[in-house]
Automatic annotation (TrEMBL):
Residues 859-870 have a biased composition (Basic and acidic residues). Transmembrane segments: none annotated. This is Glycosyl hydrolase family 13 catalytic domain-containing protein. The keyword Kinase does not apply. SUPFAM superfamilies: (Trans)glycosidases, E set domains, Glycosyl hydrolase domain. GO terms for molecular function: isoamylase activity. GO terms for cellular component: chloroplast. It comes from Cyanidium caldarium (Red alga). CDD domains: AmyAc_Glg_debranch. It comes from the Eukaryota. Keywords: Chloroplast, Plastid, Transit peptide.
Length: 870
């Protein structure tokens, strides 16, 4: 500002010669017009100081592509809070944190977001206003702000900050313009119509070029815009969702990790418009209900970057070296906005927020909770961080390895414990809870949330304190992936059993990677794993002792989006990521997998049936998959199933399929898929239903001598030696001491003749599951189960047996005495039990032995002895 006249000094656009200026007079206020970046037109204020003192108001006339005919924009200083855009009556307030000397607000007209309308296919073709904010009037601290009246509904905006020539997205943007027809825009040069293949859809994009027709790879400086929020966009009829929200206890949770697009793209009953969208998830609810899950953990739905940028901010298309297909960021771990839902996941991009809310409302009505996988550890654009570039020292960690620390493994690391970042993250979480009614969050690479700006691990991270104590978040579930990629940089941060610290550990659940590793190793037959496997089944007392929800602080999983699918875990010894850009250089090397004797797919005949020579391998793989499922569902803690594992979905050995938008990441649907995988689908569905019906399997207390007895091939004689690959367990009613469930795991290469513990008086054992049997005998409902009258059973190699105690009807005939023979099968025509364990015997919530000092001490001594012996 000129100290004599009080006027703002003329602005010199970056990269241009001194512009030709033309003064425009509007009443008592003058505006200077400047040419900036080719076709864009900007305006700089030349305010009359007396007018500013009296009215503090500025008026801008429209030019170029007008917002609407003869519309005037009335501009006031605005408010520094809340950040982002907010409504002040009929005006829109803009507030942006930016520690820079100057900020410009760029306004764009509304555009149709569906179809080829308005002659430009929904593309932003020009800016209508560029308002240069006055540091004296529009800045409070490091927050820039301005109030703009009379903006039309759907107006778009972005910022230009400091010396950065790009148009920057508001970090607090609630809606981000994106999609095939508007993803990449050029703002310098001549406008030409060019055909573009973007996001796997053929469309036509208006772009500005100085030279003749080019391909998409030539577009520079792509930018995204936010939509100014309006009151009517926030209106939604939640009906009685506040009453119907599931609020499922931790011990009852069955989590299903799913991808919105992957779940619905091949769903035959969904309309073409609904596939790949939030509304498609609504149509998948009957499938989820039949499977028996009651919580979906959706992989990232924040607006994310599908296509990456190279170090010079240029679009960088990538293709598979083996298949030639375009590679994209399909999984979504590349966030652009922490507040806006992914526009591509809407059937109508204008109403993405409404469609997300419709999905949540429908899931809640079906008693299914919604947990979001959130990424607060890094941002998109590995080499050129987008809107946070204005103050990289605030937003990102730095180290000696390069301009940005890479503790996330994705090119940059968010400086999560800076006060500004903490405010952003907490505001984001609050927004998703209050606006979208989500039930919980899974924090990706949450170890980063426990580091300071130098990457050092903090004992009491401020961001964890803020999240854990926030009153609005007090009722939602918090799940941490309690590690990060620091081990690659010599800075490991593996916090399983420690996340949240003593002050806040009761608020956090954890993806239990130790459970995953121990179970994988034992089931495949690794030596010296029987103790760790038993610890996994019992809920990891040594990790979660003293926590409010006991073993339910651990989320158990065999497979997730990272790594092998369950089917590939038993089919491959090595990863096969040759189709990825890195040519098999990416992905985890050690997967604790076993191919069961043959690497990869099995040979089939013309009829699609596996060849005779590979039948034993096929049968063994099927047993192993079932063994994993049963280990997951009988363990204390919260089970999580990865999408597709219930039908044996394979990714052909690719353990890092983040970059494929195709069948490799889609849930297989249709009649043929059901025929191919119905045997496994049935098994998983019945196993989940059985867990949900058995209170003994869903306790929030650790196993102890009061309700659990360990066995070997003889009752109460477990073999804890390093050579042991067999372990069995009886679960008892704590009030009566009666064994109600018997589970045996045989991970050895030979069958074991097992002496069974006696069932309770007037009860018999019925066989619920034997993974060595073929479908449908591999898992039976109580009404279908065979009675086991013998006191011995042959448990096949690499198989699992589950028995349940049943009370025979006094009027029924006594069953035949029968025992398993050498073929390991029992007669299918044995009499059934006419009545079973009563609900009162299974329901023992009124009895709480775990709160006693004696029980806790015994369990602690058992765990201590185990650790010492190891």
């Amino acid at each position: 500002m000129d100290p004599v006249t009080g006027r703002v000094k003329p602005h010199r656009p970056l990269g241009k010669a001194s512009p030709a200026l033309r003064g425009l007079s509007i009443g008592t206020k003058s505006i200077e017009r400047v040419n900036s970046f080719g076709l864009l037109r900007g305006y700089r204020l030349w305010p009359d100081p007396t007018v500013l003192e009296r009215e503090r108001i500025r008026v801008f006339e429209e030019s170029g592509l007008a917002l609407s005919p003869s519309r005037k924009l009335h501009v006031r200083p605005g408010y520094p809070y809340p950040l982002g855009t907010s409504r002040r009556g009929s005006a829109a307030n803009f507030a942006l944190f930016a520690n820079v000397p100057n900020v410009r607000l760029c306004l764009f007209p509304p555009v149709p977001l569906v179809g080829e309308q308005a002659g430009h296919g929904g593309i932003v073709t020009d800016m209508v206003e560029e308002i240069v904010l006055d540091p004296d009037m529009n800045r409070t601290g490091n927050v820039w702000h301005i109030l703009v009246e009379d903006l039309p509904p759907g107006a778009l905006y972005g910022y230009r900050i400091g010396d950065v020539p790009r148009i920057i997205l508001d970090p607090y943007a609630k809606y981000v313009l994106s999609g095939a027809v508007d993803m990449w825009m050029r703002y310098e040069g001549e406008m030409r119509e060019i055909p573009v293949e973007s996001e796997h859809r053929s469309t036509s994009v208006n772009c500005y070029f100085d030279t003749p027709k080019k391909t998409l790879t030539d577009i520079k400086f792509p930018f995204r815009l936010a939509r100014v929020c309006t009151e009517h966009e926030e209106e939604f009829d939640w009906q009685d969702d506040h009453k119907r929200r599931p609020r499922i206890p931790l011990e009852d949770l069955i989590i299903y990790e799913a991808h919105v697009r992957g779940l619905t793209m091949q769903m035959p009953q969904a309309s073409a418009a609904a596939r790949g969208t939030f509304l498609g998830v609504v149509e998948a609810i009957p499938y989820l209900k039949e499977l028996g899950i009651n919580a979906v953990e959706l992989m990232p739905v924040f607006h994310f970057e599908e296509l990456e940028l190279c170090p010079f901010n240029e679009l960088e298309l990538k293709f598979s070296p083996t298949t030639g297909e375009q590679l994209v960021n399909f999984w979504g771990y590349s966030p652009v906005s922490f507040f806006a839902p992914m526009t591509k996941y809407a059937s109508d991009k204008r109403h993405v927020s409404r469609e997300f809310k419709m999905m949540v409302r429908a899931l809640h009505a079906a008693d299914i909770e919604v947990i979001l996988d959130v990424v607060y550890n890094h941002t998109a654009d590995a080499s050129a961080p987008f809107h946070f570039l204005n103050d990289a020292k605030t937003w990102y960690m730095h180290d000696d390895q390069g301009p940005y620390s890479n503790l996330s493994g994705c090119g940059n690391t968010l400086n999560a414990n800076h006060p500004v970042v903490i405010e952003l993250v907490v505001a984001s979480l609050r927004w998703w809870v209050s606006e979208y009614h989500v039930d919980g969050f899974r924090f990706d690479a949450a170890g980063i949330l426990c580091r300071d700006d130098d990457g050092q691990v903090l004992e009491r991270p401020p961001i964890i304190e803020a999240i854990s104590t926030d009153p609005l978040l007090s009722s939602v579930k918090l799940i941490a992936e309690a590690w990060d990629a620091g081990a690659m940089l010599g800075s490991p941060n593996y916090l399983i059993g420690e996340f949240g610290g003593k002050r806040h550990e009761h608020r956090w659940m954890e993806w239990n990677g130790k459970w995953r590793d121990a179970v994988r190793r034992f089931i495949r037959g690794s030596p010296a794993m029987v103790r760790d496997f038993a610890r996994s089944l019992s809920g990891f007392f040594d990790l979660y002792a003293g926590r409010r929800h006991g073993p339910c602080h651990g989320v158990n999983f065999v497979a997730c989006h990272d790594g092998f699918t369950l089917a590939d875990l038993v089919s491959y010894d090595e990863k096969h990521n040759e189709a990825n850009e890195g040519g098999n250089a990416d992905g985890i090397e050690d997967n604790d997998s076993w191919n069961c004797g043959h690497e990869g797919a099995l040979s089939t005949g013309p009829d699609g049936v596996v060849e005779e020579r590979h039948r034993p391998v096929q049968q063994l793989r099927r047993r192993q998959i079932r063994n994993f499922i049963l280990a997951l569902l009988v363990s204390r803690g919260v089970p999580m199933l990865h999408m597709g594992d219930e039908v044996g979905h394979t990714k052909h050995g690719n353990n890092n399929s983040f970059c494929f938008d195709g069948p490799i990441n889609y849930l297989p649907w249709g009649e043929q898929a059901r025929v191919d995988h119905d045997h496994l689908w049935r098994f998983v569905k019945l196993a989940i239903a059985w867990r949900r019906s058995m209170r003994l399997l869903r306790r929030k207390h650790f196993m102890s001598w009061r309700d659990a007895v360990w066995h070997g091939v003889k009752p109460e004689h477990p073999d804890w030696s390093d050579q042991s690959r067999f372990i069995a367990l009886s679960l008892k009613n704590p009030r009566t001491g009666s064994s109600l469930i018997y589970v045996a795991f045989n991970a050895s290469t030979s069958a074991e003749r097992v002496r069974l513990p006696p069932p309770p008086t007037d009860h018999v054992w019925i066989r619920i599951a034997d993974t060595n049997l073929s479908s449908p005998r591999d898992f039976c409902t109580v009404d279908e189960a065979d009675i086991l009258a013998a006191d011995e059973y042959w448990v096949a190699d690499h198989s699992t047996l589950i028995l349940q105690a049943a009370n025979l009807n006094a009027n029924s005939e006594a069953p035949h005495a029968a025992e398993a023979n050498g073929s390991l099968h029992l007669s299918s025509d044995m009499p059934r039990a006419s009545s079973y364990v009563s609900a009162s015997e299974l329901e023992d919530e009124a009895y709480e032995p775990w709160g006693t000092e004696e029980a806790t001490q015994v369990a602690h001594e058992e765990a201590t002895q185990d650790r010492q012996s190891n």
